[in-house]
Structures are given as structure tokens and as C-alpha cells.
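Lab manual, section 2.4: Encoding a predicted structure.

Procedure: take the sequence of the chain (177 residues), apply the prediction step described in section 2.3, and record the output as C-alpha cells. A sample record is shown.
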Amino acid sequence: MSASSDDPAGPDTPHHDAAPDGGVDLDDAVSRVEHELGRLFARIRVSWREAAQTVHPDLQPLGYQVLTSIATGKATSAGAIIERLQTDKTAVSRQVRQLEQLGLVESVRDPDDRRARVLVATALAQEKVTAARSRYEARLAARLGQWSQADLDRFAEMLSELGGGASDGADGKTPAS
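Recorded output:
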């Protein structure tokens, strides 16, 4: 029997058997996960763009990420932001400069090391970030609200495992969160 035009398998195409339990084979399952992660990342990028626009019409998604890192206290120096966001110094410098010009971030002396400076979010930035995050969190809660606590816990565990858990696996360092 010859392969139809709908059947991608041919004599030179590797064929993957179905899993013993009758389910989709591992390669197909991994491909589905990869596809769905791509869709999820695209939605996240759209959410960052929308959140950035909520804060200020000129703010880019990276600027929003920099601002939330500062506003939440997870990164208050350029070096910490670079590490947390895994981006380059030039991009972070440009975003910090814009955030300062927009009145969203200030550079102040570090109270623990008077020689150093830290970045702090202004009251306006805190207000804008809170509004942007509440919209995002409401949408996420609406999507996940029908899930059981056990499903949510397992999903969080699986995401952590996929992301490398406590370590990124490459150099043993814990990724910035």
C-alpha cells in the first residue's frame, strides 16, 4: 500500500510508533508541548506590551519588565536587572534612562553602601504597576479559576521542573526570580 499525500511518512521519513498505552508517541507529545509553550510565550509578550502601555504609551515591554523588577524590589541595581532579565547592559541602561525621564524611577544612594546607587520606583510607578498587574492577575485568575488546588499545585511544580527547578542546570546558579 502506498503512502497517500496526507501521510507525511515515506520511505526516507522516520516513523515513530504509538506509545504502548495507545497514546501519542513521545516525539509528538514533546512537539505539542513546544508548540503550546510558543503560544503561551506569545500571549505573555502581548500581556507585557499591554501592561507597558497601561503604565505609559511610550514604554516598551522590556521597560515594563525593568520597572516591575525595580518596583517589586527583586532587582534594584542595573547589574541585578541584567542578571534577572538575562539581557545586555546597553538595553537596561536605555530602559532605566527612559524610566527616569518618565518620572517612574529614581536613582538614590544605597543606604547600606553610601558609595553605591540603587533604583527605586516612584509613587506614580507603584500605582501604574499595581494597576497593570491587577488586570493581568484578574485574567490569569479567570483562566485558572476552574482548576483544582491539586491541579494548580502540580502545574506549578511541573513549570518549576521545566524551568530547571532551583537551578538552571547549566552552571548551578539559581536563576533570578
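Check your result against the sample. The two ends are 55 Å apart (CA to CA).
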